[in-house]
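Reopening this ticket.

The earlier resolution said the output was attached, but the attachment link was broken on my side. Pasting everything inline this time so it's all in one place.
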Amino acid sequence: MPDPLLSPRPEGLYCPAGDFFIDPSRPVRRALITHGHADHARAGHGSVLATRETLDIMAIRYGEGFAGQRQPYDGPLTLGGVDVSFHPAGHVLGSAQIAVTRGEQRIVASGDYARVSNPSCAPFEPVPCDTFITEATFALPVFKHPDPADEISKLLASMRAAPERAHLIGAYALGKAQRVIMLVREAGYDAPIYIHGALQKMCDYHIAQGIPLGDLRPATMDKTEARALREALVIAPPSAFASPWVQRFADPVIGFASGWMQIRARARQRGVELPLVISDHVDWTDLTRTVTEIDPAELWITHGREEALMRWAELEGRVARPLHLVGYEEEPE
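Inline output:
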């Protein structure tokens, strides 16, 4: 009996025939990486195969020596008799699903994915397969993400209602920060947007890839300048709100852009006055719609809440299994 095409190991999903791991949680000889978020892309591998953008992002985050070798994906290839191809995931810049095919069997590891419009990356591409490996970040029926444009309207309305207060919005450095900026620009806001220094390199990279972010200025002013800042939009990583940096601003409106802001208790715990429910992951509706659309013979579940999706699959007459991969904490999305 041949080895399974993919199987979970302590390091992550392993393909014996191709001798590679997908998004391994610890250093391995050969890694295929779906995208640049830290819970999927780690440094220290012998070699990394990923999209050009993901390789660039890993170099920005970890330094040029993040792997022994790196290979940009430029089309389907064969590794040890296994065909490998990358397909857009719609999550962040450079994000991809990885399809692994041997003979008539195909498994698609989706990484993280989204079905809503995101100008920074190509839209999700449904790939026919026998086994679909889905994330389960928001795999509960309660999660139904609103239109991101409506959330940005709330932000702009708050800025008009309180022009004397700077609005500080927490957004993660890769993907979320740039998406919030693009949504604000699409809503017609063309004034300068101030960004925390931790976002600068990633924003610069997006701009270099032709993604228009408009007039961005550093939010590294001293306390006097920060307290004088009015009618301003400032984007910063959430970690900055627990640092002395935030104390430079006089009575700011604190916001946070995340799918988790649908849970009001989380917003209160973080001291968030303006929760913005903006996610780069599928919600329950889009997740179940995607599985129904692809219609795989088997569904594997990882990265999140497995129980509700397992129950949904059972009611739908679908074969499903949780992977219980180790080393994957809840992504701070």
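Reporter confirms the inline version is readable. The two ends are 41 Å apart (CA to CA). The helical segments are 52-62, 148-161, 176-186, 200-208, 223-227, 264-269, 284-294, 306-315.
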